[in-house]
Amino acid sequence: MKTVLLIHAHPDPHSLTAQLAGAARAELRALGHEVIQSDLYALGWKAVYDEHDFPQRLDPQRLSFVEESGHAFKTGTQPDDVRAEQAKLQAADAVVFQFPLWWFGMPAIMKGWIERVFAYGLAYGWQDAGNRHRYGEGGLAGKRALLSVTTGGPSADYGPRGINGQLDELLFPITHGTLFYPGMEVLPTYAVHGAGRIDAAGVEAAKAGLAARMRTLFTDTPLPYRTQNGGDFPDRHVLADDVAPGVTGLRAHLR
Prior knowledge:
Elements: E1 3-8, H1 16-30, E2 34-39, H2 40-43, H3 65-75, H4 80-91, E3 94-100, H5 108-117, E4 125-126, E5 132-133, E6 144-150, H6 167-170, H7 172-180, E7 185-186, E8 190-192, H8 200-215, H9 251-254
Parallel strand pairs: 1-2, 1-3, 3-6, 6-7, 6-8
Antiparallel strand pairs: 4-5
């Protein structure tokens, strides 16, 4: 049995987002997994990351989010809601993010969850021997992550020649810069397109498709991103001269 954290964000409890979250939850439980939930709108989650997240400041004169985040996490002085979500995250073997694509990204309330929960010292930082605690080797290494996204437009809009650009590239700041950065194994995105005009049959098909992805959540091959400490970045920031650059950072695209 595994533990899965299911995070979803939509203000309407009857939305397609909520229905997909319910389908994922039901399938995971049917498989014998434990499901932890964070319905961010139902929680009334505070999305804004600000000085109130640091009730005992390290430096009362200057607000350095990295330094204050590390200090608050280390001293156990983070707000109760943050510590509760961090406990869920630490207990999870996999995290499923269910959300509608708004302005080519996740809703602000979910972005705020990441900003407040992914503390310095928990999700990222420095490792022994001077290696950076990021890009494949962060504090969340060993956990899996899946984005389950709904879009208003049809799939063609998000294809190779689509007007909106390819969905995987639109989501790259999340999959690579937010989830792989602290070490998570990021799985290929599950997407439901045309949500604005979906009918009942389409909803059932979308729910069945996500349920199928839940059955392979712990066996699917992760996206082959490059680790920072794996040898391709000898100076920790720039690819080695003998490695061809690519547009997304995927290992398969860079050879």
